[in-house]
Design a protein that fits this description.
The chain is an alpha+beta fold. Helix content is about 55%, strand content about 20%. Strands 1, 2, 3, 4, 5 and 6 form a six-stranded mixed sheet that branches. The longest helix has about 80 residues.
């Protein structure tokens, strides 16, 4: 369905103009497509698409009530007090009159328009319009290519930014782990020193006892678990955190 917005009196002329113009465009390898959902006529040249339409200029004037409309309003004023359900006879605020002046429009941005003039109707400008439409399609192609280039450049910048952010976060995480490992290594060494001193104190005070040996073994195992150099697994501390039971 061609995109025509014209009055019935201009429809035949608009169809003839569209038929002549589209046939000439097809000779230039332009494919005519219809977007039924959006109700658009599309011109497609090697994948670059622009919209196409023919419209008619309409003059708008303030509406003047006709005698029949005036009588209807007078009846309403005289009867509405007695009949509150009586509808008000609304009239339009404006009247619209088709002028017969047609406009060919193509594209959105960039776009082109060709109008009837008092000296040159559209029928006599076909060659100019065809050339202009081809130029518009090429201009649209260049614009779309530039937009695609800019979009790709933005994508690359965003990708680079995301990479730098992630690299920094990874480096901070590695550094924090380094700090944590160093702290835990010092803590493990301090624990071993304490365990050795405690062991010596127990032996001095009480002599060697099995329960002391068990505690020392347990304490040394915890120091080894804390030491990042040892990579020891603790069956209790490395186990999943217990879940609180539900109410039922």
């Amino acid at each position: 369905m061609l995109h025509l917005q014209v009055s019935s009196s201009s429809l035949d002329r608009a169809l003839l103009i569209a038929d002549s113009l589209l046939k000439q465009l097809e000779k230039q390898s332009v494919t005519i497509r219809i977007d039924a959902q959006r109700k658009e006529t599309l011109l497609d040249l090697d994948g670059t698409v622009v919209s196409f339409s023919i419209t008619e200029r309409v003059e708008r004037t303030t509406h003047v009530d006709t005698p029949a409309e005036r009588r209807a309003k007078e009846r309403y004023r005289s009867r509405s007090m007695l009949d509150v359900a009586m509808p008000y006879p609304h009239t339009p605020g404006y009247d619209y009159r088709p002028t017969g002046i047609l406009t060919i429009s193509a594209g959105r941005w960039p776009s082109r328009n060709w109008n009837d003039t008092s000296r040159t109707p559209l029928e006599k400008r076909m060659a100019e319009i065809v050339t202009g439409l081809i130029a518009l399609i090429e201009e649209t192609r260049a614009k779309e290519a530039e937009e695609a280039r800019q979009k790709e450049a933005r994508r690359l910048r965003e990708e680079r930014y995301a990479y730098l952010v992630q690299r920094r976060e990874n480096e901070l995480a590695r550094f924090k782990k380094l700090e944590t490992d160093a702290i835990n290594w010092e803590r493990a060494a301090r624990l071993r020193g304490y365990i050795a001193a405690r062991e010596q104190k127990l032996i001095t005070d009480m002599g060697a006892r099995p329960e002391h040996a068990d505690w020392i073994a347990w304490a040394l195992a915890k120091a080894d678990w804390l030491d990042p150099m040892m990579q020891v697994c603790d069956t209790i501390l490395d186990a999943p955190e217990p879940k609180r039971p539900g109410y039922y």
